[in-house]
Amino acid sequence: MSKTDTGFIGSYTKKTSEGIYRFTLDTEEKKITNVEVAAELNNPTYLTISRNNEYLYAVSQEGDRGGIAAFSINNGMLEKLNSELTDGAPPCYVSVDSVNRLVVSANYHTTLVEAFLTNEDGSVQAPKSVAHEGSGPHERQEKPHLHFAGFTPDEKFVVVVDLGSDTITTYQPNGDELEEVSVLKVKAGSGPRHLAFHPTAPYAYVMTELSNEVIVLKFDAQAGTFEEVQYISTIPEDFTENNQGSAIHLSSDGKFVYVGNRGHDSIAVFRVAEDYTVELVEWTHTEGNWPRDFVLDPSERFIVAANQESGTLALFERDAESGQLTLLQKDVEAPEAVCVKFLHE
């Protein structure tokens, strides 16, 4: 009997996509199958799934209002619970804590980080928000552009990454109020986009969108503060075309960091050294155009990449010892795919 895992795809709905899609990864056959619409929703560009696999939260847009939609998950099927929308563009990132009590979102366009308390049935309440200020030297840094909001490993803090002002801000949540704790200003013009914590050590890794670098940060879990350790390029020195860094994820053993390059159209693999700095292992082409996101499957034997502009998924097998990726399947149709998540094991 084949072993299968269920994944979900967030998308833009500017062309042919209908919303959130579901797919199956057969880990025996090493194949993605059954890509189908799971829920019709306008521009669900980012998703997060509760630790107990009971709820999915998605970015949502209705007309000139944006926010979060909540769904219950039942045997891989999605049933909409509610949505909470406010005037303005929708957010671009959403996270939920491990007990499914607080959902946070980052908004690229409105400068807001928002916090949504959940109800007992998993639906979301109206949010409380905090506005960011600031700018940077790059032409795309005319104002704050929040691109990530997530929880520290102990969930004591919420971390917000702002591409527009080159900052990483730590907040302490108090219910749905976010109280600022610390702000780290990283290299001017780098445009930090996404952040991922090391699973066991007090370090975090940031992917920059504008300078195409991984930033290694040391994290003080008590104080909620970060300090810079290393900057390292994610693209070859001789690559001179447009590239914009995208997603960043770590293997759960903490040995490898994976990042997405849109333009170079690759996943860069980095090995984590004993001092938690990183060194390049290889680049793997994503067999499509503009890899906005990718995900390790629950077994971490595989990586699924979502190529936004070509509307395709690609499946890779991952070597746990070397970190390297081997292509298994490409050109799996997934219209306007920009986010991919698996149910948790």
Please report the number of helical segments: 0
Shape: globular
Radius of gyration: 19 Å
Unreliable runs, pLDDT <50, ≥5 residues? none
Protein architecture, described:
By secondary structure, the protein is mainly β. The protein has strands spanning 4-11, 19-26, 31-40, 47-49, 55-62, 65-74, 77-87, 93-96, 102-106, 112-117, 128-131, 146-151, 158-162, 167-174, 177-185, 192-197, 203-208, 213-220, 225-233, 244-250, 256-262, 266-272, 278-285, 291-296, 302-307, 312-318, 325-333, 337-342. It is globular, with a radius of gyration of 19 Å. The mean pLDDT is 98.
Short summary:
With 345 residues, this protein is mostly beta strands. Helix content is 0%, strand content 57%. Strand 1 (4-11) and strand 2 form a beta hairpin.
List keywords for this structure.
about 350 residues, mainly beta, four-stranded antiparallel β-sheet
Write the layout of secondary structure elements.
Layout: E1 4-11, E2 19-26, E3 31-40, E4 47-49, E5 55-62, E6 65-74, E7 77-87, E8 93-96, E9 102-106, E10 112-117, E11 128-131, E12 146-151, E13 158-162, E14 167-174, E15 177-185, E16 192-197, E17 203-208, E18 213-220, E19 225-233, E20 244-250, E21 256-262, E22 266-272, E23 278-285, E24 291-296, E25 302-307, E26 312-318, E27 325-333, E28 337-342
Antiparallel strand pairs: 1-2, 1-28, 2-3, 4-5, 5-6, 6-7, 8-9, 9-10, 10-11, 12-13, 13-14, 14-15, 16-17, 17-18, 18-19, 20-21, 21-22, 22-23, 24-25, 25-26, 26-27
